[in-house]
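SEVERITY: medium
COMPONENT: batch folding queue
REPORTER: lab tech (J.R.)

DESCRIPTION
The queue accepted two submissions in a row. Attaching both inputs and their returned structure tokens so the on-call engineer can compare them side by side.

ATTACHMENT 1
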Amino acid sequence: MKNRKLGLLRRLTAVAAIASLSVLGMAGTAQADSNVGNIDSSKSGSIVLHKFDGSEGTDGGNGSVISDTSGMGKPLADVGFTVKQVTAKGGQAIDLTKPEGWDAISGLQASEVTAGGFTTVDKGEKKTDSNGVATFGGLPLGLYLVTETTPPANATATTAPFLVTLPLSQDNGTWIYDVNVYPKNSVNDTTPTKTVANPSAPVLGSTVDWTITAPVPRANHGYTSFVITDKLDARLEFQSASLAGFTANTDYTVSNSNGTVTITFTAAGLKKLKAGNDVVATVTTKVTSQGDGTIENTALVNVNDSNAKTPEVSTNWGSLTIHKFAEGDKANNLAGAEFAIYSDAAATKVVGNLITKADGTASITLWVGNNDDTTQDYWVKETKAPAGYVLDGSVNKVTVKAGTTAAAVGFDFANTQQGHPNLPLTGADGKMLAMIAGIGLMLIAAGAAIVVANRRKNQV
């Protein structure tokens, strides 16, 4: 029968009820009269909701229990539904134990009920159990509006309100008083990832690329929004953002507001999304300062109001300080010494150049790794010595660690003073002449004294 191919939600409307009666060869009010004739008005009914995470199919069943639900997906617990009995339309009572009641709901859509103009009786909210089942029992016969009031977490599509008649007509002139309904949701159970690349150069001011990979989840009713948000650390300056395989300003837009980068799919881009594919975004930033040495970053992916967060990744930085002083006196600081910092032991790849200040020091901030990698080896070589000192051309390894500038790795570098030319010397001959001259003077003085003494004696 054609009605067996209809989805349950369509069968649950009054249109489905009237259509099923038409198959039995009845028409108009006479159909209702005939079928009302075998409705057991003494019975009550129930609506049993079975909630699954899965794609909507083409056949929702006929209200009976479906024994094999293996292909429906995962049962969803804690999903809330509210059931309301629709008792009147514009003041006209809806009583499905009477032919007029069926006439009143002919062609009625759930959207018309939710829009207003109907009298309803709230039967409360129930949440699905661990098996994804919620049961509203002991309901009087009539028309019911079922609304999903507490959607599952991270749903990319919720169930639209739908109508259920109690009883529900079948193809063979019989009725079901306990109606089993299998509304489905699509839930975003994907996990986006984030990676960080090595910087363009291992010094401050270089750019770093952050890559966000967001799997596209199922969405039973299509995609209404797909947004990637990346709130940058204050030490990162936004440069650009792009999506692989999509056209900027056509398929998506990029905005940056105080370091919050937002990539938003346009209507054209949403149409290109396919469940199971990956959306790959690249955000390029400049590292402007070191701080504590660890610059962390995460991103948020929002699909149809479902949220998924990437794991945290980081780019790590540390400082190196060189201290230049005179050999034998560490307090004798030397300014003007020039050094090159290399990333290889062969000293062929220069990453930075330093000149010592008046206090004999020179510092540089260097990249030391990503995520759990927090150390990196570099090599230091003096390229120009201070005036009056010998150049030390040795290549020296130093291991830089992530941290603040105050915790910089220090490298002490002593310099030996240049030698000086030999000064002219008087030599041994000069000393001898001086000695002889001195002795001569002494002899002359002694002789003079003897002469004077003799003269005095003769005078006496």
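ATTACHMENT 2
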Amino acid sequence: MKPVPPVRHLVRARDLADRRYFEPLAVADLARAAGLSEAHFSREFKRAFGETPHQYLLTRRLERAATLLRTTDRSVAEICLQVGLTSVGSFTTSFGRAFGQSPTAYRAAFPPAAHLARVPACMVRAYGRPAARAATQQV
């Protein structure tokens, strides 16, 4: 039987971070998923993916927060907590570093989430049909 390449264990930890980014994950949890010590895991993760596990997890959380800012009307504090961060001040600072603007300014650059509300197909069909009298009129 062929041994599993070490990078595969790192991918397992990265997948865990992608799946459970909203939970209070620590580097120790990710290292445990990879079956490595924290120090060795951190070095190998950075070598394989170009950033530390902590940076990767923070980036994942900020990407999800940006999506929520664009597509929902939830408050910045709610979004901060929903993506697994605990301090709104730290969230705002990290978001500003990553996206070049505050979460509020980022949200303002996009149309309100209410514009993204989907109209049920039955309503589109009902109001998109010609009026009943138009079909029965003689020309």
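NOTES FROM REPORTER
The chain has a mean pLDDT of 85.
No errors were logged for either attachment.
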